[in-house]
């Protein structure tokens, strides 16, 4: 569906103050998903919206929520759940910016920040709560009725990146969060995702209750077009496992990519830290984003990367979803993900809004079946990249990269890197078992 030229945020039904606020932010033309979903949400329908990142999903749900809120601005009005802290912060920024003329109160409830300060914020009955399920569940179970009691009167629940939230890893915390909200027929539930999975579709088939209109589902283009834009070039490099760092350095410094902004995706936080330090020793402007980092450091890394103070971001999949980083020209899958949909989310960091971009995957012997599954999912064969050649890697990079990696590992061992996080994870697992 393409939006007609006459369509405006005013004609979609948003409040005057809100379309003026959007206009001040130079957002004047609704995207396809906004045109489709905003009127239906305003009619009171539950909604499933499927569209790739960068297509304006946040305004598609924030617009109608803010419009309804401004008609009756009381208490806790809406809860937005999202899988990562960074995404929660980005959504909260948009809500705050849109509602700035209306004294909107937005609370961010995520891990890595003061539980006490969050509890005080929640006691003040913010209008909108943007949260990760684990931390909100913690408050629901531990912070008392005067802190979270207001959740019982919320009018909206949004699951952003719903395909990720509706997996087993979030199931317990998500159930706790939803259990503190009004029953389904007394609130609107909005699911937004780049990938409409079977779990997401279960809401679509839920029967209508108490005269509430049926669920509205809207998907931009077919899934495979959503998955991989035509402007994205997908390539692979066959790499021996023990020299991956040298290949990475050669790729980042080759003629084609020496000035490109790049995100390197890895599967483990430890790998991210080793690569960050190694590249830093090799004079690459680098930042990292992974779960072992304190929240403030994660926020600083994102700011540095967005401001181009760092040209390379090494990240685990906390950065694969939804983050609005418009400048990425190259995505490198240093480790191949086990789930083909994760590849789609990673690749979605580049080639956005009609721009071109490259996604290059490092393939070791163990990765062949994973690559085949990805190719089947995206309905496209990857081409072999010609950017790095074995002899060049061995001649130019191997010795100095090996030295930089060795220095990084020694420094991490000296700092006992990761030990505190391992202990914390064990504690979390123990307390989870205790709760169950």
In total, how many beta strands? 14
Number of domains: 2
Can you identify the CATH superfamily of the largest domain? P-loop containing nucleotide triphosphate hydrolases
What portion of the residues fall into strands of 2 or more residues? 5-15%
* Structural shape: globular
**Arrangement of strands in the largest sheet:** 3-4-2-5-6-1-7
**CATH level-3 fold name of the largest domain:** Rossmann fold
Ends distance: 46 Å
Q: How would you state the average pLDDT, rounded?
A: 85
Count of individual helical segments:
19
Give the class-level CATH name of the largest domain.
Alpha Beta
Largest sheet entry: 7 strands, parallel
The amount of helix comes to 40-55%
Structural class: alpha/beta
Poorly predicted parts? 222-226
Rg over C-alpha atoms, rounded to the nearest angstrom: 23 Å
CATH architecture group name of the largest domain: 3-Layer(aba) Sandwich
């Amino acid at each position: 569906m393409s939006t007609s030229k006459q369509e405006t945020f005013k004609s979609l039904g948003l409040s005057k103050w809100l379309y003026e606020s959007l206009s001040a932010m130079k957002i004047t033309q609704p995207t396809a998903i906004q045109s489709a979903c905003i009127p239906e949400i305003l009619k009171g329908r539950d909604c499933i919206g499927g569209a790739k990142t960068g297509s304006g999903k946040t305004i598609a749900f924030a617009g109608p929520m803010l419009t309804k809120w401004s008609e009756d601005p009381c208490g806790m009005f809406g809860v937005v759940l999202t899988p990562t802290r960074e995404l929660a912060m980005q959504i909260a920024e948009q809500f705050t910016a849109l509602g700035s003329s209306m004294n909107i109160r937005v609370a961010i409830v995520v891990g890595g920040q003061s539980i006490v300060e969050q509890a005080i914020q929640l006691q003040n009955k913010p209008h909108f709560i943007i949260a990760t399920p684990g931390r909100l569940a913690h408050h629901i179970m531990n912070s008392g009725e005067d802190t979270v009691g207001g959740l019982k009167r919320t009018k909206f629940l949004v699951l952003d990146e719903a395909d990720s939230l509706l997996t087993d890893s979030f199931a317990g915390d998500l159930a706790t969060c939803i259990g503190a909200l009004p029953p389904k027929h007394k609130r609107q539930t909005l699911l937004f995702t780049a990938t409409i999975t079977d779990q997401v579709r279960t809401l679509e088939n839920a029967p209508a209750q108490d005269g509430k209109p049926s669920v509205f589902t809207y998907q931009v283009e077919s899934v495979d077009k959503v998955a991989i834009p035509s402007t994205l070039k997908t390539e692979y490099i066959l790499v021996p496992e023990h020299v991956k760092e040298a290949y990475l350095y050669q790729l980042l410094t080759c003629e084609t990519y020496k000035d490109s902004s790049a995100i390197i995706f890895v599967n483990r936080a430890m790998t991210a830290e080793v690569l960050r330090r190694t590249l830093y020793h090799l004079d690459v402007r680098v930042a990292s984003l992974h779960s072992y980092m304190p929240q403030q450091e994660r926020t600083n890394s994102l700011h540095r990367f967005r401001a181009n103070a760092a040209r390379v971001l090494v990240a685990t999949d906390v950065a694969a979803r939804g983050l609005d980083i418009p400048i990425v020209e190259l995505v490198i899958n240093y480790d191949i993900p086990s789930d083909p949909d994760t590849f789609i989310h990673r690749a979605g960091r580049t080639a956005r809004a009609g721009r071109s971009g490259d996604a290059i995957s490092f393939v070791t012997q163990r990765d062949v079946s994973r690559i085949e599954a990805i190719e089947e999912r995206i309905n496209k064969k990857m081409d072999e990249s010609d950017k790095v050649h074995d002899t060049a890697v061995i001649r130019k990079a191997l010795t100095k990269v090996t030295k930089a990696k060795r220095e990084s590992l020694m420094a991490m061992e000296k700092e006992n890197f990761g030990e505190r996080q391992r202990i914390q994870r064990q504690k979390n697992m123990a307390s989870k078992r205790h709760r169950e």
